[in-house]
Known about the structure:
- By secondary structure, this protein is of the alpha/beta class.
- It contains 14 helices and 18 strands.
- The strands form 3 sheets. Strands 7, 8, 9, 10, 11, 12, 15, 16 and 18 form a 9-stranded mixed beta sheet that branches. Strands 3-2-1-4-5-6-17 form a 7-stranded parallel beta sheet, sandwiched between helices. Strands 13-14 form a two-stranded antiparallel ribbon.
- The radius of gyration is 20 Å and the shape is globular.
- The protein starts with a strand and ends in a 6-residue tail after the last strand.
- The mean pLDDT is 97.
Amino acid sequence: MKLMIIGAGGVGTVVAHKAAKMSAFSQIVLASRTQSKADEIAAAVGGGRIATDRVDADSVEELVALFEKHRPGIVINVALPYQDLTIMEACLRCGVNYLDTANYEPKDQAKFEYSWQWAFDDRFRQAGLTAILGCGFDPGVSAIYVAYAAKHYFDQIHYLDIVDCNAGNHGMAFATNFNPEINIREVTQKGRYWEDGRWVETEPHQIHKPLTYPEIGQRESYVIYHEELESLVKHFPTIKRARFWMTFGEEYLTHLRVIQNIGMARIDPVEYNGCEIVPIQFLKAVLPDPKSLGENYTGKTSIGCRIKGIKDGRERTYYIYNNCDHEQAYKETGTQAVSYTTGVPAALGAAMFARGLWKGPGVLNVEQFDPDPFMAEIGGQGLPFVEQFDIDLEV
Ligand code: NDP
């Protein structure tokens, strides 16, 4: 199947490197707003395996022209969440299947939810096309872990805690690990978790405690809202409580507080010297490019699911996780572990579809597919998982 990748950032770099080695893809085109960045990635992958092009993915017309020119079977969207709907629309017009790693966000509202993309379901079904939503690490592997646990180890899942630790050190005073604008919008919003059939809202970073991460140790972990919670409680209705924990260092939180207090996290335009600028977009321009962090990044990420539920009438606990080393990720692809852990599942998910192992049609979240073929290959692609049973989950 011919693959189109849109977005030549940190995650796009990893997708390109990984997809280039997969026999599922006959040809690969990497298109982005700045074609020179796509060219650099294609050169780093080498072997003439990747062609490049330019597109402004905010424009359905440009996307349609791009798809008509290259006729891909599937597109991996690793541009920004703002482009999800335009790319899905163009896919429908041109008969292309779709995969992404982050759900849609309107530019002028720091809010993300699946409603906008789920609304495309009928149209994708009628067209016989498939849209695979949220196939990075979290969302992505996190939800596939849950589907795997539900399939093999539980009759009912009752408590789910997704735990995301980045214990890496990039040596910078402040930097974000993926697109700064999207990242800051995500971590500064109110906390939210699912309990007894309803969403409970908290102040940002209100609930926190130290959790122990394998090979890393204790790290202060904060309950934040994360998009896979929405689809997981829908697809696994026995879940009584679902939360998402992310680790933040004191330094990072202090910087975030200052950025917010001085208005640099604002997403509305302000006038400056006669032109309009959006403070958070300006901030992105002066912060380190997440892609550039890889070179000096040491340490590991550790992301997993801690699950409690019932099997054969007996309560059991289960912890499944992956640890990914920043230095190893850099050696292989030239990017740090956050881009790596996102890009590898995106490439593998598209390969699952290309090989007929994941089937549609419709707009589907990753946990709706059979987790087994994906889990059988994700270790070999660089993200092995570890399972622990009947342990103290701490949460
Ligand atoms: P980057 O900012 O590094 O890269 C984004 C790329 O998309 C850039 O090359 C940018 O082009 C391109 N782009 C932006 N707007 C457009 C447009 N209108 N048309 C065409 N290309 C465009 O981001 P990351 O690689 O860090 O993140 C990519 C995606 O991955 C994001 O959606 C992010 O939310 C998601 N993500 C998901 C995770 C998960 O686990 N599920 C974890 C981390 C990230 P230019 O170079 O010109 O700016």
